[in-house]
Amino acid sequence: MVSIPSDIFSIFAQSEADDNFDYIFSNNVAPPALKTGLPHPGARINSTLQLVYCNNILAGGQGLASTDSNDLDRFNTPLETRGHSWRQAIDTLDTLEPYRLRWTVQQMVKSFAEDTLKGTAAVTEIVLLGPLLDREHYRILISGIIDKFEQSSSMDLTLLRGVVQVLECAPSGFLIDDDVVRITNVLFREFSAADSMANDHLVYLTWALSRILDVMVTGVVEDLNRDRDHQLILQLLTDLTNTGNAYVRHQVAHAFQALQYAYDDETPLRALWKFSQSSVVGLPD
């Protein structure tokens, strides 16, 4: 059981009241429109965003055919209509096009893994492909981006966001325990330099740790070492409760909650033994 500081949730009471908290939450908001064109069957793909959109349509994630609710009919944009028409044209005219588009995605992932430079622009584009990948190519992508993360000498916020984004899009069974361990080790390294870093870096690091803990729970990442991994994270979060940044404290509170449900390698018998050992400490002989 993770021991959470008793005053951690008092941070919500410390937030200043907003006198203008009169926000309007609209109902039946139209789905966001993806601003990109669609190629003719067999034509050259112009951008990574276009490639992602095409593959998403082929996977059934976009277009009128994937909309079941009549309430959303009035929100069918010209782009959605074109997506549906494009899918029909592909199915009718070019049965090899889906294979070509999937092959292009796979080749981009392999090229990214082989590129030792992996600049910011490459990271920004490659993370868009994460939800489209099968397990084999997802493993290539996540390993390549973690390698880059480990090799970075100074914190790259774009790379940090990319790592988190790739983690969050992983289907069940795609992640392994070592992925989380390697990423958190880099975060610990960056947190150790927190005194010399900009305040926004601390905010991003805490945000990333909180999101990674969410992935550990929802992605069912198991067999993390209880003493090595969980206790280090617990100590780090405890230290962060003293920060003066309200957003950081909010993320810490969320992370404490997630850490309680994160899986580890501690068996019930070992947990009982540790509890019994701590219970007898200080008792008279």
Q: Please compute the radius of gyration using only Cα atoms.
A: 23 Å
Give the topology string: H per helix, E per strand. Answer: HHHHHHHHHHHH
Shape assignment = elongated
Through-space gap between termini: 28 Å
Count up the helices.
12
Count all strands and give the number: 0
Helix content: 55-70%
Describe the largest sheet. none
How much of the polypeptide forms β-strand, as a percent range? under 5%
Low-confidence stretches: 8-25, 63-75, 269-275, 277-285
Please state the average pLDDT score.
Answer: 76
Structural class: mainly alpha
Organism: Linnemannia exigua
Protein name: Arm-like repeat domain-containing protein
Domain Arm-like repeat: 97-278
Describe the structure.
The protein is elongated. By secondary structure, the protein is mainly α. The model is unreliable at 8-25, 63-75, 269-275 and 277-285 (pLDDT under 50). Helix 7 packs parallel to helix 9 (199-218) and helix 10 (226-240) runs antiparallel to helix 11. Helix content is 58%, strand content 0%. The chain starts with 10 loop residues before the first helix and ends in a 5-residue tail after the last helix. It holds the Pfam family ARM_5. It comes from Linnemannia exigua. Residues 97-278 form the Arm-like repeat domain. This is Arm-like repeat domain-containing protein.
